[in-house]
Amino acid sequence: MPQSPETSHDPRTGLDRPPSGNGGPDLLHFAAGLLIAALLITGLYVGRDVLIPLAVAVLISFALSPLVSWLVRIGVQRVIAVIMVLLTVFLLLGGLGVLLGSQLRGLAQELPTYQETIREKVSNLSQQMRGPGILDGAMRTVDTLQKEVDQAVENEEEPLPKVQVVPPPVSPFETAVAWLAPALEPLATAGIVIVFVFLILLDNSDLRDRLLRILGGNLHRATDALEEAGSRISRYLLMQLLVNVSYGIPMALGLWLIGVPGWILWGSLAAVMRFIPYVGPMLSAIFPLSLAFAVDPSWEMVLWTLALILLLELISNNIIEPLLYGTSTGLSALSLIAAATFWTALWGPVGLILSTPLTVCLLVLGRNLPQLSFLETILGSAPALDPPTRIYQRLLADDADEAIAISSAEIEATSVTEFYNDTGIEVLRRVSQDFSLYARAEHRLRVANGMDLMLDDLREDYPPPAPPSGQPLVAAVGGRWEIDAVACEMLAHALAFDGILAEQRPAGVVTSRYVEKLNLDSVEIILLSYFSADPAGTARNFCRRLRHRWPGVRIVLALWNVPPTVLEDLKAEDLGADEIVTSMTEARLRIARMLDKGEVPEIRTAQAPEDDSERVTALRETMVLQGHMREELDALAKRAADVFDVPFAVISAIDEEQEYIVGQSMELPGRRTGDGTDMITMPRSDAICDHVVSAGEALVVPDTDRDPRFSDHPAIRLWNTRFYAGVPVQTPDGHVLGALCLLDTSPRKLTEDEIELLGELAADVASAITGEETEAPELRGRAENGSMTLGQRVPD
């Protein structure tokens, strides 16, 4: 392919340097974005009198909409359902207001009796504070000076005649208006809010359609944005209500036990005031503390009340809120505080109350609109940088200690081998990609030194349980440059966990002298590591020299950074190698297979689960193996294939010895039963779905050609598949009957959300088989970049 004059090719990495630019369009877009943001903020401030009631109404509608929808589902007309919900809310609020009003009147009647207690406490405090203090002398000096100045002014100036301004008489109408105007404004606002709530609940579908039209563009993306915003805000409001109630009820009961009057009033006030972030709890604590001060002549009631408030705050903030909130909003702590400040500055106290729901809406827009993606970065609670990027950045900043700390945290959450596979190699990929594009000489030196320190630290802190002994069986050689050799260090450490002794050899210029100095007489396998995007020529030359010097050695090419389109055309035999691997996990498994090491567990045959006999009994009780549900299960398999856009999907059931395909989306080859059910069957030992049954977890193989455990699997060869994903089909009692499986002739990946969706479809299959309502299975595990499995990890 011809290169443009502005680009240049780097033979080391196989990448083209990008053309230089002055960034003019980006600067123009940035300025336009700032102007639009300024106009929006100005509009929010100027139109706050209209926007505040509307925002409050939308927030209330989010809370009441589920009740209205439930009434509509059971057959109540929508307008009647809206009226019923609003009347119920008004009655509850009215009843609570009457109860609190009665307590308030009782307190008002008892307040005069507390005056003597207050007077005595204030008198005692003033007596304790009397006596000489540090500032008494200074204060007396200031008072004396002030008196002398006042006396001098009075002696020099003659008193002026006093002029009294008599205001004109005020009419009764003006007096009434002056009294009613402050009260009518909040009443009018409340009326507007009620009208808005009624209209939104009455015709929320029309409002939804208008929002979809405003969002425009991709209808799928706009629908996801509305659903996410609605679910997050509704969940936040529900969790906020539960948190406040769980705080207000113990507060009221505690004040009742302490003896503070009006305990229902103060508990309700504490629950309501917690809707105001940050300042609400402090304001609500003033009233019970003040009343405890007024009621009890001693300080015991005040101290008990203070202890109660502090205890409830600690429990609520550190236990209840993290437990209930979780990630209900998806906002970071810093963005919550910044949002509270921003909306309070725009809309006052109401803005403080609405700050979290409004910011959630901004976060959802950032997630679903590419033009506003910066909002997700600024506001979201998800880490802005993934672990490989964080480690790489700390190495560039010459902060190897923090890079080691991040690496250790990742290893503690997974394992050393998974860290190398998912994070370590990815860091090296980014180093190799940036080597000629952006990195300066100082950056390259920092990364090299930092990687040396990090790997030395990891080898020391995480030694293998039983270090292998004897002669090295594997030599990992850097193919071209230093980063290639760093990957070899990682692989040697990872192979030690499999009981395989490996040595790392430095990279160098491939000459006869260099090959001779490698000293590979005792090794059985040589792994050549390459991060170049186009290593074919170099690798072929290296393999040729190695074959010439050591004819019996087996060679594995680790092509860490070759694009998939190029990798499809590369054949190991054409390059002079025995195998090609692309990930750390694949390299470990390929080498273990080639050495036939018993220390690495074999995965071709899955172990039977502990409840296998009960599981088989439950399977036979469903009668699904008699084939009477074939048509229904075929339809469910077809739905799964259509939803995930794969060529075919199957539903399997496994008994003691056989796997039966009880549902399939299309006709497939295979040995069939001879009892008239015409189901494809194979031995259980050859069934890939048996691994799902054994673990009771999801199994995802993104590319069977890259996974030596499944590349020659009978089921994979039978249907010529490159991708497999299976989730358990289990009874309400937890017995796994089989699996719902997706198969594709091309490699692909599934996100965690897609795996959960596949689990929901598996629950539908289980419900159809058992005739009982079944929930989606809890799919343990995590999605991994380039991993072989999900839920069933690679043996360490």
TrEMBL record:
Pfam families named among the record's database cross-references: AI-2E_transport, GAF
UniProt keyword annotation of Zinc-finger present: no
Family matches, as InterPro entries: AI-2E-like (IPR002549), GAF (IPR003018), GAF-like_dom_sf (IPR029016)
Annotated keywords: Membrane, Transmembrane, Transmembrane helix
Chief location of this protein within or outside the cell: membrane
UniProt-listed Gene3D superfamilies: 3.30.450.40
Topology within the bilayer: Multi-pass membrane protein
Subcellular location: Membrane
Transmembrane segments: 27-46, 52-72, 79-100, 176-202, 241-266, 278-295, 302-320, 340-365
GO cellular component: membrane
Region annotation Disordered: where it falls in the sequence: 1-20, 771-796
Domain GAF residues, every copy: 628-779
PANTHER family referenced in this protein's UniProt entry, alphabetically: GAF DOMAIN-CONTAINING PROTEIN (PTHR43102:SF2), SLR1143 PROTEIN (PTHR43102)
Family the UniProt entry places it in: Belongs to the autoinducer-2 exporter (AI-2E) (TC 2.A.86) family.
Protein name according to UniProt: AI-2E family transporter
Originating organism: Falsigemmobacter intermedius
